[in-house]
Each structure stands twice: as structure tokens, then as C-alpha cells.
Design brief:
The structure holds two protein chains of two kinds. By secondary structure, chain A is an alpha/beta fold. In chain A, a hairpin with a 5-residue loop joins strand 14 and strand 15. In chain A, strands 3-2-1-6-12-8 form a six-stranded mixed beta sheet, with helices on both faces. In chain A, strands 7-17-13-9 form a four-stranded mixed beta sheet. Chain A has seven helices and 17 strands. Chain A starts with a strand and ends with a helix. Chain A is globular and about 60 Å long. Chain B is of the alpha/beta class. Chain B has one domain: Spore Coat Polysaccharide Biosynthesis Protein SpsA, Chain A. Chain B has nine helices and twelve strands. In chain B, strand 9 and strand 10 form a beta hairpin. Chain B starts with a strand and ends in a 9-residue tail after the last strand. Classes of the chains: A alpha/beta, B alpha/beta.
């Protein structure tokens, strides 16, 4: 049985997701020792990936990012094709901005479930009321995150991705049904609706048994002492500047700009090292 | 009253000028009989024309004179009126949306069990305390009389005698409370009675069921009490879904004028 990681990377006006994915592939190979494939519309000639799977960028709409202070195109709508595109029997789909800094995700490969994802995310800085982020729609429906998804080639996983495709294809209908105010298509919402459907509308869903650590867009993320150690700076509710470092912790960098800066710094360092 | 059957559901329906609770009770009985065709159901009512042999195995009138000013204050009579050795009392304005026979297995561990807490339509334990301020202010158990179990026992007699006493002497009992209600609700009186005889004897707060699914506005998070005007409600084959989520157990629909045919 083949196992691997799949990353979707479609650059937009502000973020070089391809570089992020390439950088992430290095982390994944170091910690998880798994091959990484990429789904992209870019002409990639490097060697970081096991497979480069060409696909058209499918926009889910535009989204405002606080760290860029502007609205950018969000090429996120192709994620629902992960089941059909993956070259692996068992796949971990990761956002390009998910930082692997430990071997934690290996546990998912040993889980007996056919599909797993996170139910709850939390703010590493502890400043954000996540109730509005861990739910969707006017009536606060429970939301599952599509940032990390483990699936096996199986009926259950296929039903989930088929349902996500149905949601994407009929997005306006599902927006109306779930009272979602924003027009932008979001994978997390589509996944949550799909999981509701596949669970027989019971919301009884297998979940990754830990929560998704998140660095919020209004938090400044930097590299700290070494390769897998990072730091965040944020302003607390008393308007005091706070600093926190952490090491060996996987996390979702919701602010793309700061992660992009780290990726770029690493890339330059590598280039300098190789030229010496 | 001597029991004439072993186990059954008792539905209390006192018609008021505003609400036809017997009609609600028929809807409830229909949904119980769908999931459990052999279930025995007794209607306890003040209506004289409520006989319906298909839905109700027994129709009983209240054995003692009714307090017409506060219909809730007659609740203590359920203990004397039930024809069952073991009874689950259900409030009339509910419908059963899934099998509930496993309730008996849980409830039979005690002589009396008043359900504790309630759930919202997302199957989450309700977090709103909007309707429970008097309970919280007085550290009363968070009971809901809408589902109450008892077996013929000394404990049950003690509990319902206490309920009777509190209703009868409300003017005195209300002095014990911070922010008391003018007209006592059954839930509040049950909570006080539970406290008096010992909550550990008549509640199971650790149990995840049975609990009603409450559709009051502040629990359902609807804009108005008329949640049916706002939510997507699907009802087919005795299965109910609210905003796509499948409902389990007892749905306390609140909107009395609505009953499903």
C-alpha cells in the first residue's frame, strides 16, 4: 500500500504557494519520511516532489487577508478533486501553509478510520475567540477543517469527496441552505457539509484526536533558534506585546505573508550555501 | 391507583383556552407508536372526548379536583393516576423522532429520574441559561419534567408528595428562593422537590440521555419563537431534520399550534 502527502499549490497575486509547498516537502520528508506530490498549474522543474500533477487553478472567489491588508484571489476550489488526483492508496492532504515540525502526522497513517480531519482549531496566541472560526453559517454549524485530511482509497472517502464536489457544483444552494453570508467558496465549509451528508446528517464524524494549532493572520510569525522552532509576536487584550516561542509543533500559518518570508529566507540561505 | 400494566408512557394533557394539548398528545402518541407499536400509552386529561383506542391504551381523568388557575399545579396527580408500575411521563407538546426503548434500561436503575439538562437541535448540550436564572441563582438541579420516570415506590411517593406540598404552599416555599416565580412552573417545583428529597435520589445528571431537544428561542438561537418560520424543517417517515441535522429522541417543539398530521 502506498502512502504519501498531497499538497495543492496555486500561486496568486501575493503568495507563492509553490515555494511554500516545496519548502514544506523538505519538512515532510525530514519528519514523516513520506513522498510528497503536488497539484499545481505552475511549470515546476525542481526535484522536491514525487509527482507533479498538473491541474487548472480553480478560483473559489476572493478573500481578504489581514497580513497583506488586501483582497486576493483564492485558488482553492480544486481540493475536492484530491481523491481522484492522489497517486497514493493512503494520502495526507495538507495545505501549503501547514507547517510540519514533528512526526505527529505519522499517527494518522496508523489510524483505522478511512477519513480523518480536524474538528477544532485554536489560536496559539490565545487571543482569538474561536467559536466563530470553528463554526460556519448563521446558525453556527460545526465546522471541520480541510487543512489536514487523511484518507484511504475507500467508499467512505470517495463519498465524502463526491459530496464535496456536489457542494462545490451547487454552492449557491448550499449557501442558502446553511445561511452562509459570504459568497466565497470555502473548502472547510464544503467538507463540513459533506461530512454531515455522509454521516447521515448526524454530525457523528471521526476526527483527528487533537486540535489544529493555528497562527492567526494578525500574529507575526518568525523563525526562532533552529529549523523547527518558531516564534510569534502578538498584542494581547491589554495592548501589551507578547512573545512566545515553540519547537516541534505542527501548525497552520493562517497569515501567509510571514510564512512566505520564512520560506524565502530559507531559500536564499540554501542558495548562498550551495554557491559557497 | 393499583397498577394494571407494567410499563408505559403517561402523557399529561390539560386543555387550556389557548392550547389544545390533547391534540398535541395525539401527535406524541402517534410518534411513540410508530417507533414502538407495542408501547402502552396512557392519556391523563381533563378533556371528556379524548378517547382514541388506536393511540391511547388508557385514558384517565385526574383523580383529584383540578387547580384551574395554574394547570401545572396538578402535576403531582400523575403518581396517583398512572396505570403503570413503571411510568415515563412525557409532556404533550413533543414528538419522538427515533427509538427510545433504551431509555428504560437507563432509567430503571432508580426509583425516580427527572431528566437533567436539555439539548439543542445540533445535539449539543444547551449552553444558554436564559430560562434557568432562578435555578442557577438558587443552586437547584437543572431538571426538566418533560421526561420523568418513576416506579411505584416509596421514593416516588415521597417525591410527588413533596411536589404536591410545594404547589399547595407556594406562598411559603417561594420565600426560600431568590428571584422566585409568581406562578410556579413544574420544572421549578420538581427542582425544589429534588433538592428536598435529595437530588442524588431522583436525577442522573451524568447521563447523556434522556434529554429533550428544546426549541425555545434562546436555546435554538432562532430570531423569534416561531422557529418553524425560520429554520429548514424536514419531516418524513417519522424522521425529523432541523437545518439538515437529524433529530433524536424527544423533540420539544414549543410551537403548540403546530402539530404534524
Amino acid at each position: 500500500m502506498t502512502q504519501g502527502v498531497l499538497i495543492f499549490a496555486f500561486n496568486n497575486e501575493e503568495t507563492d504557494y509553490l515555494s511554500m509547498a516545496e519548502w514544506s516537502a523538505g519538512n515532510i520528508q525530514r519528519h514523516l519520511n513520506l513522498p510528497v506530490s503536488i497539484v499545481t498549474n505552475a511549470n515546476y522543474t525542481g526535484t522536491a516532489f514525487d509527482h507533479v500533477i498538473p491541474a487548472d487553478a480553480e478560483s473559489g472567489g476572493t478573500r481578504y487577508f489581514e497580513d497583506y491588508n488586501r483582497t486576493v484571489t483564492w485558488h482553492n476550489a480544486g481540493r475536492v478533486d484530491a481523491y481522484n488526483l492522489t497517486p497514493y492508496d493512503q494520502t495526507i492532504v495538507l495545505d501549503a501553509d501547514y507547517v510540519v515540525a514533528s512526526n505527529n502526522l505519522k499517527r494518522l497513517l496508523n489510524a483505522p478510520q478511512d477519513f480523518l480531519c480536524h474538528r477544532l482549531a485554536f489560536d496559539l496566541g490565545g487571543q482569538t475567540d474561536m467559536r466563530g472560526i470553528n463554526t460556519f453559517g448563521k446558525y453556527d454549524m460545526p465546522m471541520w477543517w480541510a487543512t489536514v485530511m487523511m484518507f484511504r482509497k475507500s467508499n467512505t472517502a470517495q463519498y465524502i469527496f463526491d459530496s464535496m464536489q456536489m457542494v462545490r457544483a451547487n454552492w449557491q444552494h448550499y449557501r442558502d441552505l446553511y445561511h452562509i453570508d459570504r459568497a466565497t467558496y470555502r473548502n472547510d465549509f464544503a467538507l463540513s457539509i459533506a461530512l454531515g451528508i455522509v454521516s447521515g446528517h448526524t454530525q457523528k464524524v471521526d476526527e483527528i484526536p487533537w486540535s489544529l494549532a493555528s497562527v492567526m493572520p494578525n500574529t507575526h510569525l518568525t523563525r526562532y533558534l533552529d529549523q523547527d522552532s518558531y516564534a510569534i509576536e502578538y498584542t494581547d487584550s491589554d495592548k501589551k506585546l507578547k512573545f512566545m516561542s515553540f519547537e516541534g509543533l505542527d501548525f497552520h500559518a493562517m497569515g501567509k505573508k510571514h510564512l512566505g518570508d520564512i520560506v524565502e529566507t530559507d531559500r536564499r540561505t540554501r542558495l548562498l550555501d550551495s554557491s559557497n | 391507583m393499583k397498577p394494571i400494566a407494567e410499563q408505559g408512557y403517561l402523557i399529561v394533557a390539560i386543555n387550556t383556552p389557548d392550547t389544545n394539548y390533547v391534540s398535541c398528545a395525539k401527535t406524541l402518541a402517534k410518534t411513540i407508536k410508530y417507533w414502538h407499536p407495542d408501547a402502552k400509552i396512557c392519556l391523563l386529561t381533563n378533556a371528556t372526548d379524548a378517547s382514541n383506542p388506536v393511540l391511547f391504551d388508557y385514558v384517565r381523568e385526574f383523580p383529584y379536583p383540578l387547580d384551574l388557575e395554574n394547570p401545572w399545579a396538578n402535576d403531582w396527580q400523575v403518581f396517583r393516576a398512572t396505570p403503570f408500575r413503571e411510568t415515563i411521563k412525557l409532556e404533550a407538546d413533543m414528538m419522538i423522532t427515533s427509538p427510545i426503548d433504551h431509555w428504560w434500561t437507563m432509567l430503571r436503575n432508580r426509583d425516580v429520574v427527572v431528566s437533567t439538562g436539555c439539548r439543542d437541535w445540533k445535539d449539543q448540550r444547551a449552553s444558554s441559561r436564559h430560562y434557568r436564572r432562578v435555578f442557577d441563582a438558587n443552586a437547584l438541579p437543572d431538571v426538566y419534567n418533560a421526561i420523568t420516570y418513576w416506579r411505584l415506590s416509596e421514593t416516588a411517593k415521597e417525591f410527588f408528595d413533596t411536589v404536591h406540598m410545594i404547589f399547595e404552599h407556594w406562598a411559603e416555599y417561594r420565600k426560600l428562593l431568590k428571584f422566585p416565580e409568581e406562578v410556579p412552573s413544574t420544572d421549578l417545583v420538581y427542582a425544589m422537590a429534588a433538592n428536598i428529597i435529595g437530588a442524588e435520589r431522583c436525577t442522573m445528571p451524568f447521563a447523556g440521555y434522556p434529554q429533550i431537544v428544546h426549541m425555545k428561542r434562546h436555546i435554538a438561537k432562532s430570531q423569534t419563537e416561531a422557529w418553524l418560520d425560520e429554520f429548514v424543517f424536514e419531516y418524513s417517515g417519522y424522521l425529523a431534520r432541523i437545518n439538515t441535522i437529524t433529530q433524536w429522541g424527544a423533540l420539544h417543539y414549543q410551537v403548540k399550534e403546530w402539530t404534524h398530521d
